[in-house]
Amino acid sequence: MQPFVPVGKHRSRVDQTNYTVHAPAPFRWLMPRISYVIQPQDNSVLRPQNARYFESTERRDLSSRFDGPGNRYRLLMVRLAERQQRGDFGYGADADPSADISAVLGMRG
């Protein structure tokens, strides 16, 4: 999972972090050192996207191709929360609890 969300040409934000103060000892000791292993892997995935921030193109979606399903899921959850705040706790008109929703989430065309 890539936790970086691009917010500009020179910035990205991280919506999550690992806070290891109360983690078990082995994890707490190893986590700070594992970044040297993970960093090259992250760079290999994220570095090809860097050029998009510097080129003036019509395409404004600067996210990774893996971000689409997650973004769609978050949008659907926001809509669900808004509907529930209005007091509607039922299934939506298009709901089928047994349906395959991978296309709705953007995981398949």
Structural class: mainly alpha
Largest sheet: 2 strands, antiparallel
Strand order of the largest sheet: 1-2
Name the overall outline: extended
What's the order of the H and E elements? EEHHH
Q: Mean pLDDT score, rounded?
A: 75
Q: For the terminal residues, how far apart are their CA atoms?
A: 22 Å
Number of helices: 3
**How many domains, as an integer?**
2
Low-confidence stretches: none
State the total count of DSSP E strands: 2
What share of residues are in beta strands? 5-15%
Radius of gyration: 19 Å
Describe this structure in words.
This protein has 3 helices and 2 strands; from the N terminus they run E-E-H-H-H. By secondary structure, it is mostly helical. It folds into 2 domains: about 5-55, no CATH class; about 65-90 and about 100-109. The two termini are about 20 Å apart.
What can be said about this structure in brief?
This protein is mainly alpha-helical and 109 residues long. It folds into two domains: 4-54, no CATH class; 65-90 and 98-109. It is built from three helices and two strands; from the N terminus they run E-E-H-H-H.
Show the helix and strand layout.
Elements (H helix, E strand, L loop, with lengths): L3 E3 L5 E3 L10 H22 L3 H5 L12 H19 L24
Identify the notable features of this structure and list them briefly.
single chain, 2 strands, 109 residues, extended
